Amino acid sequence: MACDRDWVNWAIGRIEADFNRSADTHLIPVALPALPHIALYLKDESSHPTGSLKHRLARSLFLYALCNGRIGPRTTVVDASSGSTAVSEAYFARMLGIPFVAVCPASTAPAKIEAIEFYGGRCHFVDTAHEMYGAAQQLADETGGHYIDQFTYAERATDWRGNNNIAESIFSQMSHEPHPIPTWIVTGAGTGGTSATIGRFARYNRHATKICVADPEASIFHKHWHDRSIVRQEGGAGRIEGIGRPRVEPSFLPDVIDRVMAIEDAQSVAATRVLSRRLGKLCGGSTGTSLWACAVIASEMATRGEAGSIVSILCDDGERYRSSYFNDAWVAEQGQDIAPYERRMDRFFDTGLWDE
Ligand SMILES: *Cc1c(COP(=O)(O)O)cnc(C)c1O
Questions:
Q1: Are strands 77-80 and 184-187 parallel, antiparallel or unpaired?
Q2: What are the tens digits of pLDDT across the range 83-99?
Q3: Ligand 1 mean position, distance from CA 242 (Å)
Q4: Separation between Cα atoms, residue 223 and residue 103, nearest integer Å
Q5: Model pLDDT, residue 107
Q6: Ligand 1 atom at minimum distance from 85 CA
């Protein structure tokens, strides 16, 4: 497909102008008064116009597809998405005046579906995450469109050496802090793109920073990290939206990850609630997953008498999850008992103690 170069120039200009109008996201210090030698920060990706770190990814995916000549003025863009990516992609498709279809699991949060539709996108539902990829390809074939494929292209659409990617932004915002080079950066993995970008950036710049992926217990990424022959599983990957997959995605690069931690969904939900109360702002579930891993790492560092900083990511806004993670009836329906984990996380913030 040869695309109209004038239109492509216009489209890239629109996206660049939008970027030029945007501010960078904040790096929020999280107070741990009981652990004076450990500094914890959250990169607040919820403040992007579409509410999550997927705003960066969608911008990169559209630029990548445009520069590869895959999107023209009448191309329908299709992606497989559990929600957040589709919200951001719908935003960019609308900016370019082209149709967008999201292939979502039926379990996607209603608020995300509303957000996709708000930006003019359309949702096509499938029963399980495994069916998303095939359905997205099929829809693209039927419409003569482009399957923009976040799970394959996330790792390469982002400029890992810089260009204000999330890693470059974190390191530059850390530069005036007491421990400017983070000892650890903790993130979840959905596509794996964020961990790939941060891991590559740290290596390229020869920083000592290590990367930890906090993965839902039911997800495959942490299993694959330990045993590379494990690449696919039946069933789901837990209840934390945005992270955890039943298939090792092509954008997940285990070799740039230094550690993985398996976190139970109940622990993620508890940590999400405690953090949201302490920040005075609702965070999404994957932020809680990573926070749990941060608490483990902080307590290990404190036990060894180490000083340093830990950076994690506030991946999306919790308003989208009022009917799930913040709803007691939903939590009870999942059969989760989060109260002991909430107590443990609160005690960590109050006393710095983590061991049970
Ligand atoms: C996508 C996503 C992540 C993980 O980011 P990847 O770069 O895709 O691995 C974490 N949290 C939320 C809410 C997400 O949507």
A1: unpaired
A2: 899 999 999 999 999 99
A3: 5
A4: 26
A5: 81
A6: 15
Kind plus residue range of the DSSP H or E element containing 260: strand 259-263
Region of residue 179 (left: phi > 0; alpha: psi -120 to 50; beta: else): beta
Gap from CA of 193 to ligand 1 centroid (Å) = 8
* Bridging pattern class, strands 38-44 and 27-30: antiparallel
**Tokens matching residue 87:** 């919200």
Supply 97's token pair: 């005046």
Q: What is the pLDDT of residues 226-237, one digit of tens each?
A: 999 999 998 888
Instruction: List domains and CATH numbers for the chain.
Output: 19-51+160-351 (3.40.50.1100), 71-147 (3.40.50.1100)
Residues flanking ligand 1, CB < 6 Å: 52-54, 84, 154, 188-194, 242-243, 284, 286, 315-316
Q: What is the mean pLDDT of the chain?
A: 95
Which among 42, 43, 46, 53 is the best mutation to test ligand 1's pocket, defined by most ligand atoms within 8 Å of the CB? Answer: 53
* Average pLDDT of span 305-325: 95
Placement of tokens 């000592």 in the chain: 208
Per-residue CA distances from 157 to 60, 67, 165, 251 (Å):
5, 10, 11, 10
Closest atom, ligand 1, to C-alpha of 189 = 9
Residue 3 has pLDDT above 90, yes or no: no
Task: For residue 252, give the ligand 1 atom closest to its CA.
Answer: 9
Contact assessment for residue 126 and residue 103, using Cβ atoms and an 8 Å cutoff:
yes
